Task: structure prediction
Amino acid sequence: MLRIGERKVYDLAASGEVPCIRALGKLLFPRAEITAWLATMRDGPVVPQTPLPAILAGSHDPLLDWALRESGSGLASYYDGSFDGLDRLAKREAQAAALHIRDGDGWNRDSLIARLGAAPVVLIEIAQRQRGLLLRPGLSGIDSFADLRGRRVILRQSSAASQRQFDGLLSQAGLSQEDITPLPTPARTEEELAITLHDGKADAGFGLGALSGLYGLGFTPLLTERFDLAIWRRAWFEPPIQKLAAFLHSPGFKTRAAELGHYDLTGLGQVHHNGPSD
Result:
């Protein structure tokens, strides 16, 4: 990447001039941090940055999706999971990404830094939301992951943070996917999962409580997760994100959250990470 020899790389790391991570006897150099470090070495005229596409990527959420339309922000959506959203953010293919990734005792920040390093990205809380087992209409008797044995279950794609949570909780219950009957095709969004259950094609899925009322589904709450937006700082000051941000603090947004239920907006707007300046 730098077109320099290995010896020079070791010298730079030893002197603390280049950002690196020392782990398990190895030196790791996160690409995003090296790119940010190079930017601090800039000399001469500044080349204008390529505009970021007006796209919000990452995790699907029914409340945020509604706000995206109602705000008139002009942002297009590309929902394919939190981890896909991080990748698109890192590649500058989106202005923002919606995330709900479990990081040890917290949410989203560690994964954001691991993927984008010291990039100028802000992590802002949207809501705390309830997640658990959504059940097809009329079904009862599924109160935990242990009760999924032998059941038809609608899964999510591998780039969805909820699928990784699901696999972990299933393992904690002493089960694997061989103990359930997964549908052959995963749901790409939270709403697709809910529709599949509403149509009776599966017995259960790991989804959002906010969709239970909309689709007449049973719901067993299991955890509360933090739902954030990771936004490139320069995109924050552009009209699309500003329109969305203003709408998120409107009475209409709070009313809609109450109608859907299973949301807590107490921390709305709280900044959980603010990357270094460009």
Notes: Residues 6-40 form one domain. The two ends are 20 Å apart (CA to CA).
